[in-house]
Amino acid sequence: MGFPENPAANSALTNEEERSIYRPVVEFPECIWKDRIKPLIVDKQEYEKQAKEIEMLKEEVRIMLIKVKEAKTSEKLELIDTIERLGISYHFEKEIDELLEQIYLQNGNNSNAEEDLQNDLYATALLFRLLRQHGFNISSDIFRQFLDGMGEFKESLINDKRGLLSLYQAAYVRTHEGNILDKAVVFATTHLEHGSQQEMSPCLAKQVKYALDQPLHRDVPRLQARHYISVYEEDEGKNPLLLRFAKLDYRYLQILHRKELDELISWRDDLKNCVPKVPYSRDRVVECYFWAMSTFFEPQYALCRLTSAKTSVFITLVDDTYDAYGELDELEAFRNAIESYVAINRFILRWDVKEADRLPKYMRPIYIGLIKLGDWVDEELKKRGNSRRYASAKYIEEWKQYVRTSYTQSCWFLNRELPTFQEYTEVGLITSTNYLLTPASLLFMESYTEDVFNWLEKNPEIVVAGAKFGRFINDIASHETERERGATGLECYARHYNVSEEEAIKKLEEIVEDGWKDTNEELLRPTAVPRENLMPVLNLSRMVDVTYKHYLDGYTNPILVLEPHIVKVLLDLIVV
Predict the structure, then answer these.
(1) What is the pLDDT of residue 26?
(2) 47-247: CATH superfamily
(3) Distance between CA atoms of 201 and 205, rounded to whole angstroms?
(4) Where are the coiled-coil regions (predicted)?
(5) 446 φ/ψ angles, rounded to the nearest 5 degrees
(6) Contact 463/537 with Cβ under 8 angstroms?
(7) What is the residue extent of each domain of the chain?
(8) How far is CA 286 from CA 36, 132, 156, 482, in A?
(9) Distance from C-alpha of 527 to C-alpha of 348, rounded to nearest angstrom
(10) Is-contact 509 548, C-beta < 8 A?
(11) Do residues 298 and 227 touch, judged by C-beta distance below 8 A?
């Protein structure tokens, strides 16, 4: 095939049963965390003391939320926004939802808008964003008061930097309604980018810089909270109680997450029967945990994080085997092994361990590891009652789909075939891993009922949209390197429609933006499933946006994007 051999890989794989072959080995960047992450030692007494203070402060904030019911709408919005951006709103979901429902009933359309919101761009945009983020379908017509006779945003708004930032953030919760919010994001972005820093307070300037790089609605909660705590700390009008609560809570969760990461690293180290035999694969266990923790950070989802992270570790192993190492007959054998499950009953599926004997030696540990992962998932579900074990079948089925389509992509590459854009999309949405990571993430949520299972079976728009993000943003970010290993969606689109690479990128970007509008529509009430199930799906999409920021492949090359995020969120404990 003309590819250089990988001596390190061959030394691990050579045996008299396997022929000497040339392989499409890719030189992936090494793990950047070796010797940087040590087991976290926690002062248990101090940790418990902080937990008690958190509980005390929580009740004081709850009282604040009760008292603000009698305040102006703008004051209610400010308090809710501050609590949410500081990362502590998960303690007060019921109270916040009640407040927003009250606000929606009073301000849900232009005719009902209170006086303290009229002609106030900042407050109006804040109202719109918060209601939309919580699923209330407030009309974008609320912004028509800020348009001129030509239907454009008034020039007089240009100097209102605080209002422009609020409008900018609100525009990212847009759906497929009219074009007023499409205009809003262009208008706000243009005048925030070209505005002088001297026109803004240091605190506002810091927020603008961050937002232009990472809009609030597309940011992951823990990153946003860490950033906003640093901003709020410098705010002259800050509430010291809220600030201390936010810092204590953030540190408390950091320690919890670090202990989970230590557990995952220990689990990975126990896979030593597997890891030395696949030296061609990326070691991204820390990044896998960061993805899982960013999907849901709340304490009660520890098992969800662990399942999602373990699944991601094996996805990486399988992806690199299909994408960068295996020969076609080997990949076919692995696909057949994954297809050869044993049905215990209609809900419980198990892979057949005997199939390992049919695989090349380097593949056997991966397959055995997957069997153990599937068995672990089933046992954990069994502990929660047999009525939950239907979820195990969905998990196994999505693994089958993922491996099946990975094999199809490998056939295209190794046979030098270029699929049509439609063919590529049908397969690529599955290999984006979103269809697999979504059920893996939801498996151990209490609200993951059979109704949610059936909803997932229909591939809802919010999941499809996340798959589009994972596929096409990844394709744009990695097409220079990926083209050595096979065509991406970018090449398929350009060739299929006979357009330039630049035009193909523009089209994929349009597909992504439409996907965000689909996502936002799926979040509006009434939702098909509980909101608790939708938020991890949204956060998976957010993680794609963060990981491939500026079209850099931050997963393959963590040092380009993810390293500072991981350090900030997981390794550097916030100072209280």
Answers:
(1) 75
(2) Terpene synthase, N-terminal domain (1.50.10.130)
(3) 6
(4) 40-67
(5) -60, -30
(6) yes
(7) 47-247, 271-571
(8) 11, 33, 48, 23
(9) 29
(10) no
(11) no
Return the structure tokens found at 25: 């080995």
CA atoms of 312 and 310, how far apart (whole Å): 5
d(CA 391, CA 527): 21
The whole-angstrom separation of Cα 142 and Cα 402 is 44
Query: The dihedral of CA 411, 413, 419, 421: what is its sign?
Result: positive
| DSSP result, 426-480 | HHHHHHTSHHHHHHHHHTT-TT--HHHHHHHHT--HHHHHHHHIIIIIHHHHHHH
C-beta neighbour count of 523 within 10 angstroms: 20
Top CATH class, 271-571: mainly alpha
The answer to whether 22 and 5 have CB atoms below 8 angstroms apart is yes
Report which of 351, 332, 331 is spatially closest to residue 341, judged by C-alpha positions. 351
Is this structure's pTM higher than 0.90? Answer: yes
Residues forming beta bridges with residue 341, ordered by sequence position: 351
pLDDT in tens, 165-181: 999 999 999 999 989 99
Residue 111's pLDDT band (boundaries 50, 70, 90)? very low
Query: Can you tell me the distance from the alpha carbon of 235 to that of 229, in angstroms, rounded to the nearest whole number?
Result: 10
Residue 339, number of CB atoms within 10 A of its CB? 14
